[in-house]
Amino acid sequence: xxxxxxxxxxxxxxxxxxxxxxxxxxxxxxxxxxxxxxxxxxxxxxxxxxxxxxxxxxxxxxxxxxxxxxxxxxxxxxxxxxxxxxxxxxxxxxxxxxxxxxxxxxxxxxxxxxxxxxxxxxxxxxxxxxxxxxxxxxxxxxxxxxxxxxxxxxxxxxxxxxxxxxxxxxxxxxxxxxxxxxxxxxxxxxxxxxxxxxxxxxxxxxxxxxxxxxxxxxxxxxxxxxxxxxxxxxxxxxxxxxxxxxxxxxxxxxxxxxxxxxxxxxxxxxxxxxxxxxxxxxxxxxxxxxxxxxxxxxxxxxxxxxxxxxxxxxxxxxxxxxxxxxxxxxxxxxxxxxxxxxxxxx
Length: 346
What we know:
Elements: E1 2-5, E2 30-34, H1 35-40, H2 42-51, H3 53-57, E3 64-68, H4 71-75, H5 83-93, H6 112-128, E4 137-139, H7 144-153, E5 162-166, H8 169-172, H9 181-194, E6 199-202, H10 210-216, E7 221-224, H11 226-232, E8 235-238, E9 242-245, H12 259-266, H13 271-276, H14 278-282, H15 285-313, H16 316-323, H17 330-345
Parallel strand pairs: 1-7, 2-3, 4-5, 5-6, 6-7
Antiparallel strand pairs: 8-9
Helix pairs in contact: 2-5, 7-9, 9-17, 10-15, 11-15, 15-16
């Protein structure tokens, strides 16, 4: 499974993908940029199209560049979607992975008719972009079975080697009328079962706990912007334990580190902690943000590596309880393991 950290063109620090950066993470295999950012910044858009995304970012050899279509951003804006501009950007900037230009993400509290329109409009774009490397998108929700049937029955979409799965974040974050966790898990397993030969990318669930879910369902890749969002709020992540607040940056609140947590941070081997120790994690401004963000991504990469190793060794079920002490996600992982057992027996 490839963990794909989302970047922001407003502030590309810390340049964790750049071998020249003090925050370089050699384990990194991919990064994601959003077309919405390029749409808002024409000068950067043209530069990336002229140089190519990999060259423009300065990624190290072997690091892939994923492109997000910016669906959430464009859904909140009136007017036509810039699909032709997106096509031109893909053609010239040559990302390694890119979805259809626009998908219509259903909010959990939408009425059934509105969710049906989201399905119809997304499938229309999927069919219009059945060519080349465009990755079709489907959404978790009450219409998931219709999505999978529509893709499987289409002569070209069914042959696509890749698929993207969205709509999960609002449900996991318990938006109004969010699906029950067990129904989200059943949806994930359904997609994995129906498209077992495809590389499935799952949008937006790359957290220290949710990477366990992604690993268990066999996702090829997941993306996350949480490593940066948490850093901006003064939060750092610990393996299997969730967030801790280490910098007072205003109104943000969170769980403060215990003595044991601080001791664990003192021995952290991420580039930021090796250079500055906990002082850098506590700092304000760009230094503190860069240190916390680098630390958070390092933890996510290590967590994904641990999950993959245990699954391959057949020891995950025996060991996850000691590794994942987050009380919210332990029952979800337990439920997923039980669902997988039941599925394998049918």
